Amino acid sequence: MPQRPLDPIPSIPSILQACVQALDDKKAEDIRIIYVGEVSSITDYFVIATGTSNPHLKAMARAVEAVLDTASEPCTVSDARDESGWVVVDGYAFMVHLFSKDTRRYFNLEGLWKDGVDVPVEDLVAAPVRV
Questions:
Q1: 45-51 and 86-90 as β-strands: parallel, antiparallel, unpaired?
Q2: CB count, 10 Å around CB of 22?
């Protein structure tokens, strides 16, 4: 049975854009946004980024959390104190997964959610945002 095409990606929420810009400001590597709203009941977007060390992952998580706090948006942050190489910030409408390089390769969320739609990141990082 052929798959039906995914609906077009809705406009990116400004709070998501602000979080991606905060990650870029913190020198996150290989930032990807995957729209999964049509294929997931968990969230609408996954943001996936790589950090160079556990302190870097923690700093990126704090930056995202600060953006959400400033906008009075609820969020939950996984325990960033462990050394797992994976920190998650759940903003409910989107989830930010921050990985070490090896952990990202091992879990391969991009492959797991391959039915989602990639959202171009470059334009979001460059555009002004108002939260």
A1: unpaired
A2: 19
Q: Which residue positions in the chain have pLDDT lower than 50?
A: 1-5
pTM equals: 0.86
DSSP codes of every residue in 48-103: EEEESSHHHHHHHHHHHHHHHHHTT---EE--TTS-SSEEEEE-SSEEEEEEEHHH
DSSP string covering 22-52, please? HHHHTT-EEEEEEE-TTT-SS-SEEEEEEES
Where b means 16+ CB within 10 Å and e means fewer, 113-131 reads: beebbebebeebeeeebeb
Residue bearing tokens 């797992």 = 84
